[in-house]
UniProtKB/TrEMBL annotation:
This is Uncharacterized protein. It comes from the Bacteria. Residues 1-23, 58-77 are annotated as: Disordered. It comes from Propylenella binzhouense.
Amino acid sequence: MADTTTKHRRNADALFKQTVRDARERDRSEALAAYELEAASVREKSARLRELRLAKEAAERETASAAAPKKVRARKA
């Protein structure tokens, strides 16, 4: 009887440990997928903002170069 109980207990412990391992693996996979999705979103947003900033800077340079007259430096003899 004690031998059977010990076997059942070992089987139950092994099943429980496997269930816990499976749950951890599933959580790890879900967390990694969420992390990768968020990282991709941040990269896309950063690229979009970079494009907007560069376009704005180019427009500002065009406006500044058109508005400001060019200075002529006098040469020293």
